[in-house]
Design brief:
With about 130 residues, this protein is of the alpha/beta class. About 40% of the residues lie in helices and about 15% in strands. It has helices at about 1-20, 45-65, 85-95; strands at about 25-30, 70, 100-105. It has a three-stranded parallel sheet, with helices on both faces. Helix 2 links the parallel strand 1 and strand 2. The longest helix has 20 residues, at about 1-20.
Length: about 130
């Protein structure tokens, strides 16, 4: 009986260590990149702003959330493909292959009307979201 308790204790400790090792995976996507500049302003390009924000955000999470694994879709000025569909699929593949729990794609949209302000949030999931009207 004592042997069974020891074996079960070791097994439970092993299972607990496996569960503890499974960290939350955050995938950060710096939108655009390479030949795709995104919105182009007088002094900046969206692709550069997105990359700077993505890297700063990722560093912040890495330094302050030890239980979160950060995965980047890009850490430099690159583009995955000339084809938008292939490029978006490559970004999704990175997230899926990493076992991503949350995918955040950073963009800095622009509009000719400088009076426009706000935030845009797009959500995609495998099931429909319930909305209240």
């Amino acid at each position: 009986m004592k042997r069974v308790i020891i074996i079960l204790s070791v097994l439970l400790l092993h299972i607990a260590s496996i569960i503890a090792a499974n960290r939350f995976v955050l995938v950060i996507d710096a939108g655009h990149g390479g030949h795709d500049a995104g919105a182009v302003g007088k002094y900046s390009k969206e692709k550069n702003i997105n990359l700077a924000v993505a890297l700063a955000f990722g560093r912040y999470v890495e330094q302050n959330c030890s239980d979160v694994k950060v995965v980047y879709t890009r850490k430099s000025d690159k583009h995955f493909s000339e084809n938008l569909r292939t490029d978006l699929q490559a970004r999704a593949d990175i997230a899926n292959n990493a076992g991503g729990d949350l995918f955040i794609s950073i963009h800095a949209n622009a509009h000719r009307n400088t009076g426009i302000r706000g935030v845009e949030t797009l959500i995609m999931g495998e099931s429909e979201l319930e909305t209240s009207e």
